[in-house]
Amino acid sequence: MSLNLETPTRPSSLKSETPTSPSEMLSSSDEVKYNNHTMSDLEDSISHEDNMYSAVKILILNLFPERYIISHSVTGKASNSKLDAKPQFDRRLYNIFLSVIKNKFGSIKDVTA
Which molecular-function annotations from GO does this UniProt entry contain (predicted)? Predict the structure, then answer.
């Protein structure tokens, strides 16, 4: 009984489509991902919403896990003198959130640190 020790090769049709290194994975993506969602995915997720409250809820849950939302704040400052400050939301993702909401609903007041 003999063992085949040759390394298997991928069919040529898969070689060009499947990235093999991290740099290939980054360069092969055509759009930037925000928590596994593209900008167009995020915009599409709220495209049917006319109510800003509903759109904010949908969008924020697409960008941040619920546990993260509970344990962080927009400004990173304490809400009052009796509570410790929570860490600030990831600024990059929060700015994407604001951008999508502004594109959908027009001018809104910035809530930033």
Answer: DNA binding
